[in-house]
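tl;dr need the bound structure. longer version: we got a ligand (4'-deoxy-4'-aminopyridoxal-5'-phosphate) that a collaborator sent over and nobodys looked at where it sits. i said id run it. heres the input, straight from their email, havent touched it
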Amino acid sequence: MAEIAFYENKFVDINEKVVPIQERGHQFGDGIYEVVRVYNGQPFLLEEHLERFQKSADAIELVLPFPKEKITAIIDEGITRSEMKEADVYFQLTRGIAPRQHNYPECPAVFSMTVRKARPISNREKGISVITLEDERWLNCYIKSLNLLPNIIAKQKALKNGHGEAILVREGIVTEGSSSNVFAVKDGKLYTHPATKRILHGITRAKVMQLAKELRIPLVEKEFTTDFLKNADEAFITSTSAEVMPIHTIDDTVLPVDRPISSMLVEEFVKLYHHHAMK
Ligand code: PMP
């Protein structure tokens, strides 16, 4: 097994220093990215991730340097070369390599990718504690931008204080986690922030919503406050790497230990990717 990297047009050693000084991803964070989970050697929900990648690219006027089919082929080859069964594939697209100036250069966008071992999910039975923090990001959070400063600062604060995630709050409204979407369960209904520009339209979020519909769990896509979240019967985050992860404590508020709806959704989500990986 080996960690794999791809830059611009070829596979490279993951430890090789390949990003040129004039690369706009490096100079400005001028680019977008995706992360796809590989289960049993198969990329999960790749089509959905590629679709969001295209949407992010369009939103910042980035042109893919090659068709989506070639991206799929590079990802597939990366997974094969890695010989990993359980992996995370990160891929980025930046505005290319050009002398530093703010306006867009006329050079092709640069695609890069890594394939690395996935961290196994731990503590799902117990869940995680979270802190709430002010959402200090820009207003186009639906774009999966490489600019992650507010996200990493929030995550760092959470981890430093022994929490698993930072839940971001804008003007009293819970938007999402620093690297996840947020759900609350109250009186048998499932609540989550609507898919506006204020959140990333999570692929896991969409899958969980679909599962909830199939399970006939009433779903409410509506803004809610920090107080609502703290008064919830259950709460959880979703993301490609955390999957569906229950929250046991929010700031100093401990949530009930019984989590019938979260447990059901965890179970169905795990079934979904096991089924996918068997194909
Ligand atoms: N919101 C943010 C800010 C994220 O970084 C992520 C992780 N990519 C998510 C939500 C969850 O999205 P997904 O389910 O597509 O991984």
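gonna send this back to them w/ a short note. The helical segments are 24-28, 46-59, 68-82, 149-160, 203-214, 226-230, 260-278.
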